[in-house]
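fyi for ur records
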Amino acid sequence: MPKITYLTHDGKSHVVDAAVGTTVMENAIKNSVPGIEAECGGACACATCHVYVDSDWQEKVGKPDIMEEDMLDFAYEAKEGSRLSCQVKVTDEMDGLVVRVPERQA
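which gave:
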């Protein structure tokens, strides 16, 4: 099972085991990672599960599609590596993935 590390804005690290096929958001919610609100439940209809994917992982995670890009316009301080965690599906290749949770969600 791949491990994902969520780094919160206060410097705390939350490492979780993530099942392949689930999303980065689902694993954050299941493991009570602070800062991931996921108000729309993963429908890509808000920007409250926004994370920053560390640069070492951006190629493996991939780029957002058009719908996600539109929603990222509403994210708090979106920048290079910004993704909605509800749109990032966990694969075996993501073992060790590191994402940063912004100070707040939109």
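DSSP finds three helices and five strands in the chain. thats all i got for now
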